[in-house]
């Protein structure tokens, strides 16, 4: 294959020189014919003999063709399995061969008049096959097929009608022999040539531009960056179409306009193979970055692995999901359950490690064109991914524990509410009824001995009822369920035997949040009463930044600690279960401040 | 006096009915839930309805809601609400809607039969009966420059009893003091709290409660 490529390179160079010579010979013939004419007329005459008939122009077109050939050969040698390289090389050769149609030799003229026009369709073929080497879209394939066919038929028709009586457009005036001419008239051939320009550069070129723009618009962001050279291709086609039309239809084109147009379109044309090659090799550069990835991952913490892969694969939308065997499903880096997407905008590549599922890369579909690259990156990252997977697993377990803590708190609250109701409606109710009955009996008996006994019993029952009521209130005050936190706190502070300032935010919150805040205030105030020797205290609740903040402050002796086994420790657990924090500030010089911060969604 | 009793606990209801009967009241209907209570109030036209706060089906605040409806539709019916727990907040809410002929007591208060029957009578006459626990809660509220601190212990006792809805006569019995002494205490309290001259029994409860609130 290498020999083939070098032969093509050598052949291409030779062809280029030959093409240049053909043009220069024509120029000489024309100039010799116009000897004796004034210089400005000579210029005008030279203008009519063809667009490439100055040395610079001729070199420019040959250079464009050479660049296609060289770019194609480079792409071919870098990625031998991709057909884009050979296609671009073929386009280069075809463009060089196209120049041979200007030869005065009848055979060369006849053959390369046909082949030459086809060369533009080889270029179009390469452009639409970029970057995979294949045209997968039906419309694009159709366009290329129609292009090849129409061009072939038109050039054959022109040659059939051409009789040498009038020079063809783009050709110098010297008559040539068409080997397949059936005779006709110069006018018929030129009319056919004009029709050809209308069909190819008027209709098909516009269709090509539309299809190129469509391809760019429909592409995913990553693919669009790779497809950027297609925009240049669309511009090139547009410039060339304008150039061809003006040269074919304008009777006397302004030579300045003509000159500008020629150089614009040839510049774009020369830039095109370079742009295609650069875009094509970007994936190659990405592959080199896979090597860097291995080194980089050694220093990357597990949460950075996604960004490292994004850089290495040049896909800023890439995501990593980890396989958790015990869940039989995927989780994200934070340990939350995640589904693999199954729609067309995202593609999934599953990675394995030692035969076990490891992770899935969710990425841009354009990466599918380079499966080896994705797999190489996945392999390079597998150790780091395994590490990150364990991290995600731990996170997932933590998440489960957190959820179960919340459930435990919720269940405990529910239980407390139930116990409170049971006490009131069960034991307490019965004891009151019993006491009433005894009192009734006491009245009816009117017996002094029994009377004092019954009176004492009723007294005991009253104490028991009182104790049950206090017990139920401690378990879960009814007013908290019925009227919310502010009302419950108001009721709470009115029972404290010293003055307490209360500033409670109104409005209901989720039951767990209200209960937790209430118990923080309750426990803190109980501590104040028991230990602080305070003369006054303040209770405040505020909603701030999605948090309910409950704060209890006293002017007592301080020195409170949230150690193990203390009520404060249990409260801290409760607050943390809901994702909040409990702070205790209790300096030895006096005063205690307890602040609970509880997340509340609303 | 005609009484309707709404209470879902049969044991307690029977005790209550017996006490009321022995106390000379005429229990004209008994109800086990809010619907039965409404029908009884319409059919029996009682002087007082005694209502438990928690009743079926949810055992939360059916009684309170039923009480509110009776206040709206039959303001002439005295209402005595019984509960296992009392909250100053609930008392003030029920009071503010229609303060006359209203009572709000812990269920245990029934055990002190004479006190309880007196409370029912007060409510039936358009008076007020507020549970001492509610009054204690109201006393416990913090006020800026609390004028309550200017009162003597005895005056505070008298104020509490006034807030419960008791008449001078009731206060006399409770504290074993002469009516004259009580009257002077009442006047002192009203002047210290800057409530103007003491009005009659019914309206002074409202003035006192409004102050404590």
Number of helices of chain A: 18
**Biggest interface found:** A-B, 40 and 29 residues
Number of beta strands of chain B: 6
Major β-sheet annotation of chain A = 5 strands, antiparallel
Domain module tally of chain A: 3
Beta-strand residue fraction of chain B: 5-15%
Taking Cα atoms only, what radius of gyration of chain B do you get, to the nearest Å?
17 Å
Helical residue percent of chain B? 40-55%
**Multimerization state:** heterodimer
Mean pLDDT of chain B: 85
Describe this structure in words.
The complex is a heterodimer of chains A (602) and B (213). Chain A is an alpha+beta fold. Chain A has 18 helices and 10 strands. Chain A has helices spanning 2-33, 39-49, 55-78, 84-99, 106-129, 138-161, 186-218, 221-226, 229-249, 255-298, 305-313, 371-380, 382-445, 448-475, 478-483, 485-493, 511-532, 567-577, and strands at 319-324, 329-331, 337-338, 347-353, 356-363, 500-503, 537-544, 547-554, 581-585, 592-599. Chain A has a 5-stranded antiparallel sheet, covered by helices on one side. Chain A has a 5-stranded mixed sheet with strand order 6-7-8-10-9. In chain A, strand 7 and strand 8 form a beta hairpin. In chain A, helix 3 (55-78) packs parallel to helix 10. The longest helix of chain A has 64 residues, at 382-445. The model of chain A has no long low-confidence stretch (mean pLDDT 84). By secondary structure, chain B is an alpha/beta fold. Chain B is built from 10 helices and 6 strands. Chain B has helices at residues 10-22, 34-44, 62-73, 88-97, 113-124, 132-140, 153-164, 168-175, 179-192, 201-212, and strands spanning 2-6, 26-31, 48-52, 78-83, 102-106, 128-130. A 6-stranded parallel sheet of chain B has the order 2-1-3-4-5-6, with helices on both faces. In chain B, strand 4, helix 4 and strand 5 (102-106) form a beta-alpha-beta unit. In chain B, helix 6 (132-140) packs across helix 7. The longest helix of chain B is centred in the C-terminal third of the chain and has 14 residues, at 179-192. The two termini of chain B are 32 Å apart. The mean pLDDT of chain B is 85. The A-B interface holds A 421, 424-425, 428-430, 432-437, 439-440, 443, 458, 461-462, 465-466, 469, 472-473, 477-479, 481-483, 487, 490-491, 493-496, 499-502 and B 9, 11-12, 15-16, 18-19, 22, 54, 59-61, 84-85, 87-90, 107-108, 110-111, 113, 136-138, 140-142.
């Amino acid at each position: 294959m290498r020999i083939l490529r070098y032969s093509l390179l050598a052949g291409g160079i030779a062809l280029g020189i030959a093409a240049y010579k053909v043009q220069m010979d024509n120029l000489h013939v024309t100039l010799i014919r116009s000897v004796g004419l004034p210089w400005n007329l000579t210029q005008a005459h030279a203008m009519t003999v063809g667009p490439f008939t100055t040395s610079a122009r001729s070199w420019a077109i040959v250079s464009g063709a050479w660049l296609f050939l060289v770019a194609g050969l480079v792409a071919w040698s870098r990625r031998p399995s991709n057909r884009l390289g050979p296609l671009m090389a073929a386009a280069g050769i075809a463009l060089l061969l196209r120049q041979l149609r200007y030869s005065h030799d009848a055979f060369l003229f006849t053959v390369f008049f046909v082949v030459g026009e086809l060369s533009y369709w080889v270029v179009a073929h390469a452009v639409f096959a970029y970057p995979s080497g294949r045209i997968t879209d039906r419309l694009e394939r159709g366009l290329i097929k129609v292009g090849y066919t129409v061009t072939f038929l038109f050039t054959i028709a022109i040659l059939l009608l051409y009789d040498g009586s009038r020079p063809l457009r783009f050709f110098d005036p010297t008559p040539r022999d068409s080997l397949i001419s059936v005779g006709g008239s110069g006018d018929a051939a030129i009319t056919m040539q004009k029709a050809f320009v209308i069909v190819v550069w008027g209709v098909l070129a516009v269709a090509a531009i539309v299809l190129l723009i469509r391809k760019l618009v429909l592409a995913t962001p990553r693919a669009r960056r790779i497809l950027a050279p297609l925009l240049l291709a669309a511009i090139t086609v547009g410039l060339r179409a304008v150039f061809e039309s003006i040269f074919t239809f304008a009777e006397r084109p302004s030579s300045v306009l003509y000159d500008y147009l020629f150089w614009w379109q040839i510049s774009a044309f020369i830039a095109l193979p370079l742009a295609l090659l650069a875009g094509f090799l970007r994936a190659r550069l990405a592959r080199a970055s896979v090597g860097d990835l291995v080194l980089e991952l050694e220093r990357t913490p597990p949460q950075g692995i996604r960004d490292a892969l994004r850089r290495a694969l040049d896909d800023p939308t890439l995501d990593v999901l980890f396989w958790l065997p015990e869940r039989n499903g995927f989780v994200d880096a934070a340990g939350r359950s995640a589904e693999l997407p199954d729609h067309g905008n995202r593609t999934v590549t599953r990675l394995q490690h030692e035969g076990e599922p490891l992770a899935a890369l969710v990425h841009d579909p354009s990466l599918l064109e380079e499966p080896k690259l994705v797999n190489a990156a996945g392999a390079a990252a597998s150790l780091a991914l395994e590490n990150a997977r364990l991290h995600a697993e731990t996170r997932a377990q933590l998440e489960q524990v957190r959820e179960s803590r919340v459930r435990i708190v919720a269940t405990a609250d529910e239980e407390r509410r139930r116990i409170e109701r049971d006490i009131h409606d069960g034991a307490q109710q019965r004891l009151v009824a019993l006491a009433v009955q005894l009192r009734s009996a006491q009245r009816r008996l009117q017996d002094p001995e029994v009377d004092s006994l019954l009176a004492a019993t009723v007294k005991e029952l009253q104490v028991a009822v009182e104790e049950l009521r206090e017990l139920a209130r401690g378990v879960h005050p009814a007013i908290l369920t019925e009227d919310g936190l502010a009302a419950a706190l108001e009721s709470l502070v009115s029972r404290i035997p010293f003055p307490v300032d209360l500033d409670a935010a109104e409005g209901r919150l989720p039951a767990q949040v209200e209960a937790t805040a209430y118990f923080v205030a309750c426990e803190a105030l109980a501590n104040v009463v028991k230990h602080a020797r305070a003369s006054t205290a303040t209770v405040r609740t505020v909603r701030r930044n999605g948090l309910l903040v409950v704060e209890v402050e006293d002017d007592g002796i301080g020195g409170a600690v949230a150690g193990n086994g203390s009520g404060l420790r249990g409260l801290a657990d409760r607050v943390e279960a809901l994702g909040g924090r409990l702070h205790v500030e209790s300096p030895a010089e006096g005063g205690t401040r307890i602040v609970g911060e509880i997340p509340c969604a609303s | 006096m005609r009484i309707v009793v709404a209470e879902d606990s049969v044991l307690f209801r029977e005790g209550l009915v017996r006490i009321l009967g022995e106390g000379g009241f005429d229990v004209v209907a008994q109800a086990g839930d809010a619907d039965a209570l409404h029908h009884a109030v319409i059919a029996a036209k009682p002087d007082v309805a005694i209502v438990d706060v928690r009743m079926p089906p949810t055992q939360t605040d059916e009684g309170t809601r039923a009480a509110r409806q009776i206040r709206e539709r039959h303001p002439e019916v005295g209402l005595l609400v019984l509960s296992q727990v009392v909250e100053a907040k609930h008392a003030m809410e029920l009071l503010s809607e229609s303060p006359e002929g209203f009572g709000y007591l812990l269920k245990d208060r029934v055990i002190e039969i004479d006190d309880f029957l007196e409370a029912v009578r007060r409510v039936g006459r358009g008076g007020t009966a507020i549970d001492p626990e509610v009054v204690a809660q109201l006393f416990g509220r913090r006020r800026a420059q609390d004028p309550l601190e200017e009162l003597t212990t005895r005056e505070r006792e008298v104020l509490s009893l006034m807030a419960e809805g008791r008449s001078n006569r009731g206060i006399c019995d409770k504290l074993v003091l002469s009516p004259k002494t009580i009257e002077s205490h009442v006047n002192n309290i009203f002047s210290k709290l800057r409530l103007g001259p003491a009005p009659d029994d019914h309206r002074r409860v409202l003035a006192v409660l409004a102050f404590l609130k």
